[in-house]
Write the structure tokens for this entry.
Amino acid sequence: MASGLEWPPRQVGGSSARGVRRDETDSPPERNSTDRRFRPKHRLRRRKDFAKVFSGGIRLNARVVTTVVRPNGVNHPRLGLAVARRSARRAVARHRLKRRIRESFRHHAGRLGGLDVVVIVNPGAEKMDSKRFRELLAQQWERVVRLAHRTGRGSGQRGA
């Protein structure tokens, strides 16, 4: 069955996978200062980073969320999440809580300065409706901002 046809058909002439031809001079879109993506540099990932925040951070308690804050020595905030199984039994619910917290962090990160923030989710958060949980997180971010300004810790300077 050598009819000269190949499967899958090849893309010809530099077109993309969608069949739209790209100009060789196309550049990535310009990024503005309101870029609110949650990039890897905004995440706490290593155990020692979490340990630093827990050992020397200031705790702010709310009903279903505890926030631990510590200056990080860099010019941008970083977020760590601690959502235990006891706070939400089903993985789907835990992941939903994490998404809500990350989304809220993205919208408030511009005001947080150089802080490491770990958000610990306590039991009962799963049962809160989305709007109330979002309001609670906004109140927590406001408390973090006030704390950072009052103590001079959000500047991104080491030892501040």
Observations:
- The longest strand covers residues 65-71.
